[in-house]
């Protein structure tokens, strides 16, 4: 598998020149574009890596999955009083739909939805940022994961769009805590600095019926894990969810830091990272790498015949 | 399995009183609401039914899958020059997004997208309606399937909304044939009268890597079949695609006639039918039946552990 | 005044090179751009012209005023059950607002509103096209005015966008006659071929409390005439109504043929024509000419002090 | 005229029971609905009043005119780099259009536009609130006008929607000062407490070619005054601008405190006040009173024949 991963990275490396690193905050704009890594955590305990798989990057919107899981963990189905789980069909930071639908975000993976989830968590935890950081450390079995304070502060300085969303939801009664305080937490989550290895490990429980093999905790029930995967499958890649389902066919969540986390239920959790993005804000080389990986190794959840290797791994579960 | 299907139908039967039969054309408004059926076609060749599984109903939007498959069959990836495969986030018959996106429909399962697909097929076949009817007869192994002329004519009389969409796309250069002629074909497809057994059989190839076990033809390549499943998963249930992924977790396509076709890749094709609809236009009892079926038998494509029975069936493939 | 008109035309003539003749139908795209004319009908009976004031042009959307006046004439306030008189804030041919507002057009000067007005007139007149032509001939005191059959046919061939609007309104129950028949009438009105002199004369009744000095008929009541002027002032220039109020400050109605009709209540009716349009579809040189005319002669209805000359003319009324 | 004003108030008084006092902040919700006043400032120096014409009320959005005039006063045409003067066709506090049009408000009388104007003034004045208060005191010749601190604070506590707009504009680079500071100024302007007499006096310069007869200052040039009137005519009454032009036919600006200021160019400035509002947020009785006043005394700027009395007053100017 090591060889396959290396071969895939070599194949997609030319795409690094075609994308553009996220420009909306200076701290991210300075990231070197020529980086590319992948990590595959198999549920039989093996970890395979290639490229810059151990270089920390800003996980950005991948953190929306962790926030959602935290909220489901303490509030269960109750969170769906505040937001939905339908694809939005609009840009991740659009206010149009949010106004038309009276402050109720479509799903937890657009910014408005993630802000509501953070608002829910803010009501629960005395120190929401630390609570999240510790949660992620346990999931990834890495006690050295930190949030990059420079990135978080830079995002706060450029908070206007997210602040507009939060205030719009507050005007509809769907935001309960101080806007600035929640934004601070939100940006700390986004600024978590993790490597492909960290993210792949931290997503293992979603491929494993909600059980985290590293921390040995049942993070979610099997049904809840399946539901989070379903939401990722329909809403996890900004306005490319359909494209990702069509080309890769696996639940996933991307971030503008260039990371994409993917779940192969029952078999693998995967993270690919490359900071150069396409027009939709997804890692250009990362998308292509996952498409190849899906074709050659993992298969798609929508295909009839799992790959032989995968079946073998599955038996070993 | 027979017992399980019967048990599920008994469980959801109280919901028949809560939905409403589609009212937009008289021919559909007259359908008796107290009907409920299910058929499960296993890829090992077994067919299991319960309830009114052999009563023909109007397949309506389920026909959009057949049209799409026909178009992919003769034009392949080329069709995506004319439309996309992203979830729309809007009502199935909305013109708002269509205008903003300059006449390019989001996906083939909203009305605008299905009309473009029909326009593509119209350019290909001398008699598009007959070509479709014969195609469906082969897939379902039932030479007696017909389109209900009364329903088709009634839909044509109430064509205003679909005509508006077609003309709007024509104004953007994305509609090539005579609007009325394409609408006639479209309504003939919608008015196809099929039973749960017919539909379950006709969808078998999508669970079976594109190979139809009845007609013994490779309808699509394995990858194309997987892609059609992916589009169903993100856009197949009107504005409830997210809800269906969350609750059922399988690719599916619904129609306002009350039918829902579902694919369990590698294992089953399923059709449930009950004409009483929820507010989103999907069969109320049908949705609940599929949720139970997913929990107890088929599993979800997003869950880590397939059900034991399913695994057995899989082995037999 | 003759000299003033000539001076204004000379001043704006350089703008003829900057606009673009309407391209949406071939018949209009062939019009020579270097044409410019103006006619001012004074209520004391004098007519002043300059430039190509006697060259017929396609009045296009200016006809929307005549249709509205006809409808008010036979149905009075009842027409407002079917449409409004608020500015739309959207492009003249947008379907977005029309869908959101359930098929009720904002005002009679966007295409959807004009189509509803034509639908109302179609229900009233056996031959709506002839009825309109004869009405305009009386108002302009010119029995030779005709509708250009080539233009009307060309518009019909490119009817897709207007057909989409009509069908969308029909889907909401706000369109009662056959769509094609109403479109035929609508395009015949748009294709009326009139000169600046014709239009200026035909608009005189709106400056004259509803009384047409040429045909000696009370076309509208004084209050109705004032109301039509009010609608022109808030909605008469596509999405430049605010700009026109700001720069010219007079009720007016433009057409993509390059004509703009203007009313100075109690004093003048005016028509300027030049086929080269700005990005909003209004005559570029025509707009500037009217701005100068407002500053130097007519004043604006929003200014405190009418011009001396105007006051004199007023006394002579 | 005194008798006419009294007669009109008596006529519309039954409408006081049909509207609803603004509820969005507690301080306004407590205002007694059974209040009704009118003041007419004639340019010949006479002031006519009836009803509660000397009771102070919260001017709210009427303040948007004063802010605009201040901004034009120091920055002239330059302000139009930041916003437009087209009718919006949308609710006064909608963010939809603002996002689509990339943070550039349609006009200065919707909230977003007024916030940009306040942002411009904030950059100019060290203490924007005091500067505005003093400006209004001069225009109204009343040194005791104050801003109601309770109302202003209440509005700030309920600032969410306006904060959302300001941050959205900031995200597009069209908001330069601290959002909270500008909101504080904005709410102080809205909370100005003035009577019908105050407002009628303060609007006199707009009827008088920009010259304030009380403070003897040329506030605006004649052309600027005409332009402000034009903007009021197309955008001054929330989403009833068309209705107001149709029924009253005069430039005006309303506020949710129940006041409506109106300009009869060259003749009068008027303020009517009654706190019970219609569904569009305009004073129900106030609108009807102005419609009667327009019919019986002032005429409309869109009518051909000014009323005799008005002509007399005009001569006296």
Strand and helix layout:
The structure is a homotetramer.
Chain A: H1 2-12, E1 20-21, H2 26-29, E2 37-42, E3 47-51, E4 57-58, H3 63-75, H4 96-100, H5 111-124, H6 128-140, E5 146-147, H7 149-157, H8 160-171, H9 179-190, E6 192-194, H10 196-202, H11 204-207, E7 211-212, E8 217-218, H12 222-235, H13 241-247, E9 252-254, E10 259-264, E11 268-273, E12 276-277, H14 284-298, H15 308-316
Antiparallel strand pairs in A: 1-12, 2-3, 2-11, 4-6, 5-6, 7-8, 9-10, 10-11
Helix pairs in contact in A: 1-14, 3-5, 5-8, 5-9, 6-9, 6-10, 7-9, 12-13
Description:
Chains A, B, C, D: GO terms for molecular function: glutaminase activity. Chains A, B, C, D: It catalyses: L-glutamine + H2O = L-glutamate + NH4(+). Chains A, B, C, D: It is an enzyme of class 3 (hydrolase). Chains A, B, C, D: Its EC number is 3.5.1.2. Chains A, B, C, D: Keywords: Acetylation, Hydrolase. 4 copies of one chain form a homotetramer. With 317 residues, chain A is α+β, with helices and mostly antiparallel strands. Chain A has one domain: DD-peptidase/beta-lactamase superfamily (Beta-lactamase). Helices cover 47% and strands 13% of the residues of chain A. Chain A contains 15 helices and 12 strands. Chain A has helices spanning 2-12, 26-29, 63-75, 96-100, 111-124, 128-140, 149-157, 160-171, 179-190, 196-202, 204-207, 222-235, 241-247, 284-298, 308-316, and strands at 20-21, 37-42, 47-51, 57-58, 146-147, 192-194, 211-212, 217-218, 252-254, 259-264, 268-273, 276-277. In chain A, the strands form 4 sheets. Chain A has a 5-stranded antiparallel β-sheet, sandwiched between helices. In chain A, a hairpin with a 4-residue loop joins strand 2 and strand 3 (47-51). In chain A, helix 12 (222-235) crosses helix 13 (241-247). The radius of gyration of chain A is 18 Å and the shape is globular. The two termini of chain A are 17 Å apart. The model of chain A is unreliable at 307-317 (pLDDT under 50). The interface between C and D is large, with 43 and 42 residues.
């Amino acid at each position: 598998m090591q060889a396959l991963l290396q071969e895939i990275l070599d194949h997609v490396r030319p795409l690094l020149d075609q994308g553009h690193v996220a420009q909306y905050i200076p701290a991210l704009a300075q990231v070197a574009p020529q980086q590319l890594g992948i990590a595959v955590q198999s549920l039989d305990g093996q970890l395979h890596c290639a490229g810059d798989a151990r270089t920390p990057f800003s996980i950005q919107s991948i953190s929306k999955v962790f926030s959602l899981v935290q909220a489901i963990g303490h509030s269960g189905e109750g969170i769906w009083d505040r937001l939905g789980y339908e694809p939005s069909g609009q840009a991740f930071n659009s206010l149009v739909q949010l106004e038309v639908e009276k402050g109720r975000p479509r799903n937890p993976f657009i910014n408005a939805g993630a802000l509501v989830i953070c608002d829910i968590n803010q009501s629960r935890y005395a120190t929401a940022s630390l609570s999240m950081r510790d949660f992620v450390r346990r999931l990834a079995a890495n006690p050295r994961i930190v949030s990059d304070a420079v990135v978080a502060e830079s995002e706060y300085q450029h908070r206007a769009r997210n602040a507009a969303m939060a205030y719009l939801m507050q005007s509809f009664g769907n935001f309960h805590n101080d806007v600035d305080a929640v934004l601070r937490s939100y940006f700390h989550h986004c600024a978590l600095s993790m490597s492909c290895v960290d993210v792949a490990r931290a997503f293992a429980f979603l491929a494993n019926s909600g059980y985290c093999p590293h921390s040995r905790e049942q993070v979610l029930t099997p049904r809840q894990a399946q539901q989070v995967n379903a939401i990722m499958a329909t809403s996890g890649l900004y306005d490319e969810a359909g494209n990702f389902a069509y080309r890769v066919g696996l639940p996933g969540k991307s971030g503008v830091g260039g990371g994409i986390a993917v779940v192969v239920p029952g078999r693998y959790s995967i993270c690919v990272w490359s900071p150069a993005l396409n027009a939709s804000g997804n890692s250009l080389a990362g998308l292509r790498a996952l498409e190849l990986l899906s074709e050659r190794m993992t298969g798609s959840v929508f295909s009839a015949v799992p790959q032989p290797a995968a079946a073998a791994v599955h038996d070993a579960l």
